[in-house]
Every structure is written in C-alpha cells, then in structure tokens.
Amino acid sequence: MGMQQHPQALPAHAAVALQAHDVRVHAGKQCLLHGVGVQLPAQQWTAIVGPNGAGKSTLLRALAGLQPRKSWSGQVHLLGQPLADWPVKARARALSWLGQNEAVSQELCSYDVVMLGRMPHQAWLAPPSAHDHAVVEQCLRTTQAWDWRHRPLGELSGGERQRVLLARALAVQAQVLLMDEPLANLDPPHQSAWMETVQGLVASGHTVVSVLHELGIALQSDHMVVMQAGQVLHQGATHAGDTHAALEAVFEHRIRIRQIEGMWMALPTAAKSA
Ligand SMILES: Nc1ncnc2c1ncn2[C@@H]1O[C@H](COP(=O)(O)OP(=O)(O)OP(=O)(O)O)[C@@H](O)[C@H]1O
C-alpha cells in the first residue's frame, strides 16, 4: 500500500459535508500538510487517526477555517460552498468547533460558557431567548454537566471541564461538528456517553468529524481518515479491510484490528523480538 496524495473518492451517491483539496499548511519553513485531499461524508461520523505529529489537528483546523490565511493554500468546501464564501455568522451556525486546550475565561460559570455556543443565533447585544436557555439546559444535561452549571470553569476537573466544552459545541446546533480529541480526560462511562451522543447526532442528520487517539472508539465510526507525516495515507469506510490494514501499518503493526463480540477493537501486539 503506497502513500496516496489524493485518496479514493466516496461513492458517487454519497453527499459530502466537508471537502479539502490540495491543502498545504506551513509554519515558517516547515511543511505541516503536504497537499492533503479528503472528502468527508455528510450525515456520518468520521474519525481522523494517526500517530503523534501526523497533522491531524492541523487538518481539522484547516477544515474549520482556523488556519491563518497566510499559512495555508488549497481549497476547503463546507456543504458544497467554499469556506471563504460563507457569511461569518451563517458559517458559525453551520459549523461547530471543539478544540484542544481552548482559551476560555476560567471565571465564567459553566452555564455561561455553554451559552457562548448560542451566540451565532443571537442578535447583536440581544439577551438570550427562552429557546437559548432551553438548549443550554438540554446540552448540559446531555453531557451530564448540569449539576455544576453555577461553578466557574477554572474550578472543574479536566473531565468535568471537557464535558462543559462539549456542551458548548452541542449548543451551537450546527449541521457539522468538528472535535479535536473530544475524549481527552473523559473516563470510560463518559467516553461511551460521548459516542452515543455522536451516534444520535448522526442519526438526526448531523455530520461529526473527530480527531481521536482512542482507537477502540474510533473503530465505531462510519468513515476513517488515516494520517501519517503530514499526509493522508488512506480514507474509507471504517470497517473495510483496507482501512484496518492502513491503521495497522500507520501504527507500525504494534496493533491488530480484531472483532470481539461483534465489535472491532485495536489490540496491542507484543514488541518484536530482536
Ligand atoms: N505552529 C507550529 N509551528 C511549528 N510546527 C508546528 C506548529 N503547529 C504544529 N506543528 C507541528 O506540525 C506537526 C503536526 O502537528 P499536529 O498538531 O497537527 O499533529 P497531530 O497529528 O494532531 O498530533 P498529536 O496526536 O500529537 O496531537 C507536528 O510535528 C507539530 O510539531
């Protein structure tokens, strides 16, 4: 299996929520993405996986339009329209973002943090509507963060904080959600709860794209993008044999993908003997 600069297309009938073509990202003289192309299916959950430093977060930021203009080239389309052509507010309603180590005021209480997710729906300086309050409550309950709605973000544990930030991303009610390592600091029950939330979003017509290190969870996704060294090595249906082969290869065959009790899992392999 060779490196693919422009991986295989989706079947012709599949709608594409996000598309990147020949995306290159630079930081100074260093090239972080070497002309990446991806097509991420609408109304599906895509997992972006690969080793540390492969360029996963860089790609996700490019897809979200968060790379500084001078640092990248190429084309990104959101729901069929070039990212740059989207009016700012419409784009903020269509695409929700959960980043890593986001700078959010530590003094804000959790409720107000989640209310920030409603901003794209609110008129300038208008107070939140009853609907905004209802959505915030629903999202805090979904991520099981309602109990500490009055507590400032800075007081929360890593996992509690992550669940508040996840609630904020959900509160946007965007058609497309991009999440960078959403499971960071979450314990196993809340990882499973996150997966159920994502599956619910997809069932109701949303598109979710997540960078994940937890391969057991990533293997439950619909579509997978496997990255290595600033390139996309493979993209395709998560359960396809060639996707599993790419995944094993990119992790240097230190994992094997096996089905146990009907679920695909990544099992560690023993180190090669010398
Ligand atoms: N602003 C920057 N300046 C220089 N190099 C950068 C910058 N941002 C990222 N990099 C480098 O680009 C490469 C890709 O980084 P990126 O964060 O996209 O990787 P990743 O696949 O998300 O990694 P991880 O799994 O460790 O989070 C890394 O080698 C990183 O050191």
Shape assignment: globular
Order of helices and strands: EEEHEEHEHHHEHEHEEHEE
What is the gyration radius calculated from CA atoms?
19 Å
Structural class: alpha/beta
Bound compounds, each kind once, are: adenosine-5'-triphosphate
Number of strands: 12
Task: Give the overall average pLDDT.
Answer: 91
Indicate the proportion of strand residues.
Answer: 25-35%
- Percent of residues in helices comes to 25-40%
Instruction: Enumerate how many helices there are, as a single number.
Output: 8
Domain ABC transporter: 18-254
Protein name: ABC transporter ATP-binding protein
Keywords: ATP-binding, Cell membrane, Membrane, Nucleotide-binding, Translocase, Transport
InterPro entries: AAA+_ATPase, ABC_transporter-like_ATP-bd, ABC_transporter-like_CS, P-loop_NTPase
Molecular structure report:
With 274 residues, the protein is an alpha/beta fold. 29% of the residues lie in helices and 28% in strands. Strands 6-7-8-3-9-10 form a six-stranded mixed beta sheet, sandwiched between helices. A four-stranded antiparallel beta sheet has the order 2-1-4-5, with helices on one face. It is globular. The chain starts with 15 loop residues before the first strand and ends in a 6-residue tail after the last strand. Adenosine-5'-triphosphate binds next to strand 2 and helix 1.
